[in-house]
Structure formats: C-alpha cells, structure tokens
Amino acid sequence: MTAPAPATGAPAAATGPVLAADALVKVYPPGSAGGQPMTAVAGVSLRLAERSCLGVVGESGCGKSTLARLLVGLEPPTSGTVLLQGRPLGAHRRAERARLLQLVSQDPFSSLNPRLTAGAAISEVLLVHRRVAGRQQAAARVTELLDMVSLRPDFARRLPHELSGGQAQRVAIARALAAEPQTLVLDEPTSALDVSVRAGIVNLLDRLRAELALSYLFISHDMAVIRQLSDQIGVMYAGRFVERGPWDAVMSAPLHPYTRALLAAVPAPQPDGSLLAGAEPAPAEPVAGEPGEAAAGAAGAAAAAVSSRAAASPATGCPYAPRCPLRIGQCVTADPPLVVVSGQHEAACYRAGEQDST
Amino acid sequence: MTDAGPLLAIRGLSVGLRRSSGVTPLVRDVSLDIAPGERVGLVGESGSGKSLTLLAVMGLLASPQLVVTGGSVRLAGTELVGAGDRVLRALRGSQVAMVYQDPMTSLDPVQRVGAQIAEGLRAHGTSRRAARERTLAVLAEVQLPDPPALARKYPHELSGGMRQRVMIAAALAGNPRLLLADEPTTALDVTIQRQILALVARLQQARNLAVLWVTHDLGVAAQFVQRLAVMYGGRVVEHGPTATVFSAPQHPYTAALLAAVPSTAGDRTALGQIPGSPPDPAALPPGCSFAPRCRQARPGCAEREPELEQRPGDVAAACFVPPAEWRS
Fold it and tell me: Which of A95, A100, A115, B139 is paired with A277 by a 20 to 30 Å CA distance?
C-alpha cells in the first residue's frame, strides 16, 4: 500500500492490520426527487491492529454508519478498498468472511429472527460455519456462549420478544461470537439502551475483547462510551476523519476544533455548570453552511445551528470551516489533509492544536 | 389564587393502566412542587413513569385505558385532575406548555410553521395581526434566522435542531409560566443539544419560566436543573437539590445509576452495573421495588415499601438502609 499509513497500531501487534481501508469513498446518487449526489464517506483510510479497539465517534450524518457498512461489505464503496487480513474483502468467500468479521448493530431485534429462540439463532451460526460437529455439541456451545455474555442457560429457549433490550443485545453479541470471528464491527451497540443496561454491555464488550483476543471497530455518537473502550479514537466529520490518535491524547489534548466542540458539548454527569458556561450567547452560525454567511450571523439575530451532514458542507475547503472559530482564509480554499501532528496523533486542520480564541 | 406557594403542586399523583384483570400501577404516589422560575428535573430509565407523570400533569394521557387513579395536580391554585376540557384548554399555552422529544408529534407536517404558531395564539383570542407579530417575535427569540422566511417553511424543510426551536417558540408564544419538557434534546446531536439547553436556560431566566424537564440523561440533569426527582418503578425514590443528589446520593438506586454513567474525564475504570432489569409494573416485587437488584438490600426491604422521607439537607429518599452503612 502506498497510501499514507495512518497510525492506529497497538504496540503488541507484530502482524499486519486485521482490517484496513484505503481511500474509501461512498457517494449516493441523487434521490428520485433530484438534488445533489450525497458523499457519505469522503476518503477514509484506516488500519485496525490485531487485538485493538478503534473507536469512531461522530454526530448523525457524519458517515460513521456508512463506513461500518462498507467495512463489513454490506455495501460496495464507490472507490477505495477494504482489506480483511490483508486480502480484499471481495476475495474472501462469504462464509470465510463471516468467520473473520461480524457486525453488531444498534438494534439487536433487527438481527434476530422473531420466530427463532435465542438458542436456535446461535446454533444456526454454529452449524452453518461448522464450528460444532452436530446438534448435541451445538447445544453445549450455546450454553457456553450465553454464559460468555452473562445470560443463564435457560435464555436459550426464549424468543426475541421475551428479551429486554439489553438481553437481546447480549444474544446478538453471542450470535456474532458463535462464528468465532477475530474482528467485530460494532455500530452503536449501546445507543438504544438504558443507562444501567448500557454499562453492563460496555463492560461485557471490554471483557470479551481481552478474553477472546478480539479486535473492535467501535462506532458511537457517545464520546464517553468511546473513551471507555477505545485504544485509538477517530473523530469523523463530513465523511472523513478530522482527528485520530491514542484515546487519552484525543480526549485530553484534542487537536481539532471540532473535537473540542464535541467534548465541550457532552453534559458531564457532575453538576459543575460546565455545559452552559460559555454557551451564551449562542455562537453565530450560518444556516446553509456557506462560509460567506458567517458574517451575516454575527450581525445581530444570531443564526441557528447547522447539522454536521456532509450534504451541508461547502464544496471547497475544510468541511468544518463554516462552524469553526479558528477559520482563516486558507480553510475556505483548501481542504486540510489528515496528517501526523505529534507521535501517533493526527489531525486534519491547518490550525491543529491552537486554542479557540473566543 | 395565591402567589406565595408553588406554581405547580403535584400531590400523591398515581396513574394506572386499566385492564380487564384490574389496574396496573404505572405512576405511584408522586409528589413534587415547582416554584415560579425554577428548573426541576424528573430523571429515570425507561418504564420508570417519568413521562407518564408529565402527561398526567398536562391532562394528556394518551389512551382511555390510562387513568389518574389518585392525587392532585394544582397549577397556580387551579386543580387539573378531573378538570374539564375547557379549563385545560384555557390553561394550555397561556399557563403551561409542553415540548416533546420528537417535534413532529406536535408540529403538523402539512402546515407552515408560522401558521401553526399563530393558530395556537388565535385559539386564545389573539387578533390575526397580533398573532403574526407575536409569531415573528418568538421565532427571533429562539434565535432562528430570518423569521419571516422561516415562518413560511414546512417542518420537513428544517433540521432537527431548528424544528426543536420552532417547537419551543410555539410553546412560548402564549407566555406560559410553566414549561413541561419530555426529553426534547434526546434525539439531537450533542452539539445541537448544548445549543438548545443554553437557549432554554436563557429564555427561562429572561421570562422567569418554571421548567419541569424529564430526562434519562444524568448529564443533562446535572447541568440543567436545580432540583431533581429520581424515579424508579413508578415512584420517586429520591428527591433533592441537584448538587446534593449527585455528590451524596441517599438512595442506592441513585448511587448505582451515577456509577453506571461513563464520563469523558477521570480514571477509566469499569462502569458500575445494576444486576437484573427494572420491575414489571404488572408484577411489582413485594416491598421496595428496587430490592431485588439492590446490593444494600436487607431482609426487611422485601416486606414493606419504604416511604419517601425527608432527611437533612432538603433531600428525601425512600430507603430503609442509612447511606452511612453503604457509602464508602
């Protein structure tokens, strides 16, 4: 590979990445109503080192779920390649791919057949992938897998509608693990869960990764959950990584102004007044995401927020420029590439690491 | 009407689901006061009864099977439980207004947003011209750009954050004294959520508005409300000033919930877990509803249900076990 190698390797990994992407792009054609093509993923390269967890965080529309679908082959990229164990995704047979890589999604009920018991759903995977010799062995293995996700053996007899959200997510994880994959792509697996249930799933995923030597690509909109599980954190905005690096560096010394805005917006679960302090007056923001409108917003009636959708990004320059407090002339004419700023810490910003002036 | 006392006084409010087999209790004996200009939070996980409490206050229980089975809700001295539609309609908008998680539940998709806001005002007898002026004024107040142009848009033409602003504008158009909010920022991205919270905080202060904010997000509660009630199994299990509840929770459920929340700062240690799942309201465990999941449970906890009792520091908790025995 000649692409600039993003540094996402855990120190322990001597082998190549278990999962890699090179210049992935996904453009959706205009819908039936017309309009512009939508670029969901705008050139993402990544390497997931063996036994490591890369956390991908971003807001709705940033392209993180599309990235997940490209990485597991649910959708073909418009351009770019995905390498699984060093070979193109398409070069693996489907069954082989499933034994290397599994997806766990936000809604566990969507991946569970409503008419199959948890045990049958897990057995199905065991038998299809010949992970067991026969039905009897499958039943024993189902019990083991349920135990792995901290569910009692009798859960094997339950239908999806007899499970709570957290229990269903545990079954979905057990089912993914039944194929004995090396890598899990986890797309917001805790987002639909209540606080107390979410904590159990986060702890479970952390434990399973260590016990089974798994690699995770963990996608979430929740900075705190990402921080809890990741070795490396990548922050996505408008279909690309704008910052990536070791978890503690990204969290404690964020380089990109968007990462800082994201972190500042997370309401801390201690009453310290941090969220609303400095939040007034509302930052003047253009509505169409066009750089020229920023001045109009500052003129008086402060403008409302734009979403982080790639569609709202300007055609040239940094996609974050319209919202960025550090914007300079260069930002609206050229798109900053993701480059190493220090050590393994990368950012796509001409003013990476500078403090916000306002 | 009295001007001393709370603006909203909820006393022993209970809501049940009527079935052929009997009434399933979903909200049990909830009491809560809100003073004028105060921000109060109602916090809990799904099924705790927090949203139902809000809907019952507003007289908006969605189905005929959902009934207020007891208690009283007084808004500025007027009893709302059992009040007729005319009384409730007169209060809605002018005294109390509500915002929801999904703005599309309160916004009409086929009507321009300006017309929707004006319609609410017209229903209270405002002239057409005054309603239009007022509409443009509140759209500016919620910091939407170019109110005249925005008033002509349909909800689907707006982003999620802008729709929330429109819903807040519609709620505030009639100058209510109390805003009831049912997780209005939960579906928003965090950067947008922050802007909406800042906006509501600013409006709340400018208008001396009382706010009852329902949320499952302890971070939002910590940052936004001055006082909060924690609900579990349909009951308030703890209640007090936000800073006190967060720094020294009195109920083991509150403490466990706080330990389960990941943070963006501090040590990275395993999150606290609560074993089991919340109770089924149709089959509540005997005694304290939290006892089966509670690490501090004593034999007596499964026999009687603890009352919510006042403790020093303006806090109240419904637990037999003194915090000194379990707090490290």
Answer: B139
Q: Which residues of A touch B276 (CB under 8 A)?
A: none
Preferred mutation among A151, A164, A195 to probe B, highest tally of B CBs within 10 A: A195
Q: Is the dihedral of CA B137, B140, B144, B146 positive or negative?
A: positive
Of the residues B271, B293, B294, B295, the best mutation for testing chain A's interface (the one with the most A CB atoms within 10 Å of its CB) is B271
With an 8 Å Cβ cutoff, are A301 and B271 in contact? no
Three-state SS at B322? coil
The answer to whether the Cβ–Cβ distance between A196 and B273 falls below 8 Å is yes
What pLDDT, in 10s, does the model give residues B141-171?
999 999 999 999 999 999 888 999 999 999 9
* Proportion of chain A above pLDDT 90, given as a percent: 73
Verify whether the Cβ–Cβ distance B263 to A221 is below 8 Å.
Answer: no
Give Cβ neighbours of residue A229 (< 8 Å, ≥ 6 apart): A53, A55, A202, A205, A206, A209, A216, A218
Judging by beta carbons within 10 Å of its beta carbon (0-12, 13-18, 19+), is residue B311 exposed, middle or buried? middle
What is the rounded average pLDDT of the residues B23-41? Answer: 96
Rounded Cα distance between B187 and A124, Å, is 35
* Least Cα separation, residue A234 to chain B (angstroms): 15
Return the pLDDT at B123: 85
Instruction: Give A5-49 pLDDT, tens digit per residue.
Output: 444 444 444 578 999 999 999 999 987 767 788 999 999 999 999
CA proximity to A236, closest of A319, A311, A351:
A319
